[in-house]
Write a structure and sequence with these properties.
Elements (H helix, E strand, L loop, with lengths): L21 E3 L2 E3 L2 H35 L12
Antiparallel strand pairs: 1-2
GO molecular function, one term: zinc ion binding
Protein name: FLZ-type domain-containing protein
Organism: Quillaja saponaria (Soap bark tree)
Length: 78
Amino acid sequence: MYNEFLQACFLCPEPLDRGDIYMYSDKPLGTIRCRKKQVHSNEAKDLEMKQLSSSSRRELRKYDNKNQSFPNKNVKME
């Protein structure tokens, strides 16, 4: 017997009673097409998060570099 969570595709309202159920990231998907859409969606989100993370790190480094103060001006930085 199917769980409630396995009654319909995560992306579309199609019932999952046709045989094969494709799973991706703990989500039931009724067709290979729905699975491909979910994979593509997750990859796009991952890429966006990486770009945001990289951008945030650059901004933080810029801020840190601008706001460094050295009380002794004779300090040599190597």
